[in-house]
Design brief:
alpha+beta, Nuclear Transport Factor 2, Chain: A, 146 residues, 3 helices
């Protein structure tokens, strides 16, 4: 079960790296939720595609997303909660200047239904983003390192 289900994570990342927002959204159930690193939540495939269109064509158009570590926990026979530690190279600022590489975590809920394994919900985090830069050295905060 887990290997087949985790292939959805590989497919999500592959589609993200192709920068095709519509194809990206197809790995989700019709009424899925996706909360991005800015805390904005899209509900449904159409909103998920719309949420990713701007970054895919501007700030993330040269970026590459990589799953550095994936761990899953089963919740019954048809549901998995997956933790993905990710890294990203090549993000751009709005003025097209390069940004540092990023690291973060996603919590992804995958469920088996009539269409096979699909993503139900994603909570995406970049903990070293806005707030992480404000933490004093020695605060105990740890980045998204595996």
């Amino acid at each position: 079960m887990a290997i087949e289900a985790l292939a959805v994570i590989d497919e999500m990342i592959a589609r993200w790296n192709r920068k095709d927002a519509e194809a990206f959204a197809e790995v989700f159930v019709e009424d899925a939720d996706f909360t991005d690193v800015l805390g904005q939540t899209a509900h449904g495939r159409a909103e998920i595609a719309a949420q990713h269109t701007f970054p895919f064509t501007r700030t993330l158009r040269k970026a590459t997303l990589t799953a550095d570590h994936v761990a899953a926990r089963t919740c019954g026979t048809d549901t998995l909660v997956v933790r993905v530690h990710w890294s990203m190279s090549g993000p751009l600022a709005l003025d097209d200047s390069p940004l540092p590489d990023l690291q973060g975590k996603m919590q992804v809920v995958i469920q088996r239904g009539a269409e096979g394994w699909k993503i139900v919900s994603v909570l995406n985090q970049n903990p070293a983003g806005v707030y992480g830069k404000q933490l004093p050295h020695g605060s105990g905060f740890k980045s998204a390192a595996v």
